[in-house]
Design goal:
- This protein is mainly alpha-helical and 331 residues long.
- It has two domains: 96 residues, Tetratricopeptide repeat domain (Serine Threonine Protein Phosphatase 5, Tetratricopeptide repeat); 155 residues, Alpha Horseshoe (Serine Threonine Protein Phosphatase 5, Tetratricopeptide repeat).
- The protein is built from 16 helices and two strands.
- The chain has a two-stranded antiparallel sheet with strand order 1-2.
- A hairpin with a 5-residue loop joins strand 1 and strand 2.
- The radius of gyration is 30 Å and the shape is extended.
- 32% of the residues are buried.
Length: 331
């Protein structure tokens, strides 16, 4: 190949490279103009209340440019309007991920969507404190029990401070304390009332009575929840050993150790990994049990024993061998 032919080929290659660079720049500029245009169109539809069209336009925008933060903000607003709170939360989080400079502006919306996201189970069930309040004030115990028999998270329901006013919440707690002795035989209402009063002040003795009643009458998840909440009551009162007993009682009632590990870690001041058994470690089955006093020095006995803990004079719990950290008393 002659020198002249080599120069021709080099010139052609350079021209191709220049054309490629120019096309790339034109393509980038095209997408920049296109995404800006789509954002303006999407916002226009959004402001006019044409939410479906706005979403379609903005979805197309983020397909072209997945890093376009402001588009996720508007999509989050559209999801909030549609009461799709979990989706709204995800959109707002993506705003921060793709455009950190917008964090200050988007954070209030993120917090609001997070609050509503946590209430999603109540929204799905159609049951909140606004529904419970008039029934409780009219003492319609049977109707409330029927509602609570549905798949309603009672702990979340009792903490629902959005659907009623603070004054109504105070009235509801007062009525719950008043009716506590009259709702025997209604375990869901008893457990809900215990949660309701627990998050208030000054009703620990009533809460304990309600939880003991639920523990004796209920089975399954209600019994587990009652045991965990009783543990929290004992912690609140400074009775860490009794609290540990109740958390372990929840495990004996069928709760996963992972569900109470954080409570036990808090009592024993250790990390979660210390509480949780390793993948190769299992709780052995044995028939041996040891009765303990009402408030033993430690919630467990020797490491090779299973322990039966007496929560009150009538109820015995056979507990699986705890992890080694539970051998010592809480600090």
């Amino acid at each position: 190949m002659t020198y002249y032919e080599q120069m021709i080929r080099l010139a052609v290659l350079l021209l191709c490279l220049l054309a490629l660079v120019s096309c790339t720049q034109l393509r980038t500029e095209f997408y920049r103009n296109e995404t800006g245009y789509l954002y303006e169109v999407g916002c226009s539809h959004y402001k006019q209340g044409d939410y479906d069209t706005a979403k379609k336009v903005l979805d197309k925008l983020i397909t072209l440019d997945p890093d376009y933060g402001p588009a996720y903000a508007v999509l989050g607003n559209l999801a909030m309007i549609d009461e799709q709170y979990e989706q709204a939360y995800d959109y707002y989080q993506q705003v921060i991920d793709h455009d950190p400079e917008l964090e200050g502006e988007i954070l209030p919306f993120l917090l609001v969507s997070s609050m509503h996201k946590s209430r999603q189970p109540l929204t799905d069930s159609g049951i909140d404190l606004a529904v419970i309040y008039p029934l409780m004030m009219d003492e319609k115990i049977g109707e409330i029990e029927t509602l609570l028999e549905q798949d309603v998270p009672l702990d979340l329901l009792a903490r629902d401070s959005v659907s009623i006013t603070p004054g109504q919440l105070g009235e509801l707690r007062g009525k719950g304390a008043e009716l506590a002795s009259e709702i025997e035989g209604f375990p869901n209402l008893q457990l809900f009332t215990a949660y309701l009063l627990f998050y208030g002040e000054g009703n620990e003795s009533i809460v304990e009575e309600l939880l003991l009643a639920v523990n004796q009458a209920a089975q399954g998840s209600a019994k587990q929840e009652a045991a965990v909440l009783m543990g929290r009551v004992q912690e609140k009162q400074g009775n860490s050993v009794a609290a540990a007993k109740w958390y372990l009682a929840a495990v004996q009632a069928g709760a996963a150790i992972e569900d109470v590990a954080h409570h036990l870690a808090r009592i024993y001041q250790v990390d979660l990994e210390t509480i949780l058994p390793s993948q190769n470690e299992a709780y052995p089955e044995t028939e041996n049990t040891v009765d303990s006093a009402a408030h033993p020095a430690s919630p467990v006995s020797a490491p090779e024993q299973r322990t039966a803990l007496s929560i009150d004079d009538e109820t015995q719990f056979s507990l699986p061998k705890p992890h080694a950290v539970l051998i010592t008393s809480p600090r």
